Amino acid sequence: MHFGPHLLLAALEGLVTSAVLALTALGLSLVFGVMRVVNVAHGEFFMLGAVLAWAISTAISGHPALGFLAALVLAPLIVGAIALVAERLVLRRLNYNPEATIVATIGMLYIIQQLALTFYGPEARPVEPPFSYRILLPWFGYSGYKLSIIAASALLLVATWLVLTHTKIGLVMRATQYDSETAQAFGIPVDRVYAGVFALGAMLAAVAAVLIVPISQAHYLMGQDPLLLSFIVVIIGGLGSLRGTLVAAVLIGLSDGIISVFFSPTLAKIIATLLVAMVLVFRPQGLFGTASR
Amino acid sequence: MKDASPAKPYALHLGVIALLFALSFVLPDYHHGLLARIMVLAVFAMGYNMLFGYVGLLSLGHAMFFAAGLYGAGLAVIHLGWSVPAAFAVGILCGAVLSLVIGVLALRTSGVAFMIVTMMFAQVFYLVMLYLASWTGGDQGMVVPQPARVLSFGATSLELTNPTVRYMSALALFSIVLLVTLAIVRSRYGRVLVAIRENEERTKMLGYDTFSNKLAAVVVSGTICAASGAAYALLFGYVGSSFASVQYSILPLLWVLLGGAATTLGPLVGTLFMYYVVDITSGYTSAYLLIVGIALILLVLFFPKGILGTIRHRWLGWLP
Fold this sequence. Notes:
Helix content of chain A is 76%, strand content 2%. By secondary structure, chain A is mostly helical. Chain B has a two-stranded antiparallel ribbon with strand order 1-4. Chain B has a two-stranded antiparallel ribbon with strand order 2-3.
């Protein structure tokens, strides 16, 4: 294959990564933005989504699309419910203290990971894609399902954006993010907003995982990379800034796709992580974020 | 609160050291070996406690300092054929230099950003160790050859593979670090660190250079952790990338939280307790990470002060 088509292939792969990453990172960013909680267990909610997708799609016989659609609806709901319970039982009792919640979410990470290992096992298991149409380009054939991931993710992102900017729920969330005490004084049930946001963040990660699982298999350790990449995206985009998160997700996804096609993936990760650490050291508000209040 | 007379705390600490010395002759083989390992790892926890307990800086990347000592000492023996004392010194030096560099960078941030930055630097360190697999052995790790693990003084030589020598070396390192920590904590400098933890702005206003004090604390902490790592490589003869992984950054946090942050003996108590909990439960289940996770959550929820922290709060106010 020549350089041009090779680059196009790398860019397409990168866009698929970006699409999934944007959803996952948006969940992390919402939780951090509204609640000021750094959720280290976010990657495990992603993993749970994928594992549940496998469980649901194997439980439902018939056309693979049927099982996949059921997983797409049910898996995020179950993950959201688990997150809600975790929030009520642990995070609320810690009064959302930033340092205590980090330690607690590290605890959740280990618990979820170990339970997945115990009940799901160490194997990587595939989920059948709902359809297997290949789009023929002049140089190579490309999976139609991968392109539909990009479309589905874009749709979900636009929907989230609309909810945040054009509905009362979004208004309440933004008010809580801006100043939770004043919001409370105006009769906004801040407590319930926090619970909802934490569940929503976990659900976004789970949806992303259900979308990606037909092309990458479900495994109990699969939450580590998305967690690190989401952190990178949220930091570069500016902590708590949604537009920045989107731009950064596309940037990171594309460069990750392209760099790891041409160089060693470990080297790509080293460079990316180091760059982001430097961004956080020298420009804590992120590349696109505005200075914090 | 603090008793002015230094007699009580020093007597307590010397008593603990004497007890550990005496235990060496009583314990059955299995627990003897386990306790040697626990003492080395307790040094790691003490180094972590220096920064987390006394300065209030929560790092999620201390595995890199431990691993710097581990690789520094281990690779010096494996690739350069250096003697044990030289390799140990190199390990410590690696940790000191690394912690100075990381400190200068990471201390520009604070709070949550500090945690994430330290975690990311540790991740970079971990990935670099994996990337340089031809020297470090990657995730397989490398064994430090037994014949090289010998301490020689002139004609006499001590084999570090011998259980008694190993136990006594671990105890020696542990005792030195314990007494040094106690001295630092009780010194003027230790009080400045606590002042920074309690109110950094006010400390700055009183004329203290908080940045260089914090930087010194990062270096002391990183160097102690590296000493623990170097000792681990030389005493137990294995270096591997798993010691640089994020899990080894979380474990010292867990041990310190459990034993009691900002208590000098807390790291030992926490490490000892956690090791035996995992040891006992691993007889029933392989799910030891589950126990670590539940322990972390229960600790932050119900015992944020840890075992010794609670004892100090309730009964023994003089406990350092």
